[in-house]
Amino acid sequence: MALTRNDSEAQDLVQETCLRALPKLGSLRADSNLKSWLFTILRNIWLNQLRQKRSASNFAELDTDESIADLVQEPSQNPHDSYVGKMEREWVRQAIERLPVASREIILLREYEELSYQEIADVLECPPGTVMSRLARARSKLRSLLSTTDYFPAEPSADGEKLSSRSSGK
């Protein structure tokens, strides 16, 4: 979902990955990392699809669908804190989507898929040191985006106009 921005395309991508991987499963070495191998196949299929759709601008979206678990309010959590947390997650999601594809990809593999540096290196077919430097650059770009972007939601003022929380002094 993080790569395709579309639930049905994500399902198709996973299905295509399984279709390509299953016949070759027997050739996988016993000491191989199955998760990295599958991510490599998935990534290659996704990149091929991107090349075919080069003129389209839909690249990657983080999972934005709210599940029932996201909607249930923890009894101990303040509704305001819950709202602010949701807004901050949306702000970070939007900032990640604004990153270049290579930066977004490495952030997603590390922070969302929780792959190790070695697993990412296997997926991207590069040395772990390259993964670390690319990840540092991607995090720096993300930090820069987050520091220059106002994420506060618009709130109506007393006269009905929309003001950001920051401009309304809250």
From the alpha carbons, calculate the radius of gyration and give it in angstroms: 20 Å
Shape: globular
Give the uncertain stretches in residue-range form. Answer: 67-71, 153-170
Overall helicity: 55-70%
Major sheet: 2 strands, antiparallel
Order of helices and strands: HHHHHHHEE
Distance between the termini: 35 Å
Describe the structure.
By secondary structure, the protein is mainly α. It has seven helices and two strands, in the order αααααααββ. The longest helix is centred in the last third of the chain and has 21 residues. The chain is globular and about 50 Å long. The C terminus is likely disordered.
Produce the secondary structure layout:
Layout lengths: L6 H15 L12 H19 L15 H4 L7 H19 L3 H12 L4 H8 L3 H21 L5 E3 L5 E3 L6
Antiparallel strand pairs: 1-2
Give keywords.
mainly alpha, two-stranded antiparallel ribbon, globular, disordered C terminus
What's this model, at a glance?
The protein is 58% helix and 4% strand.
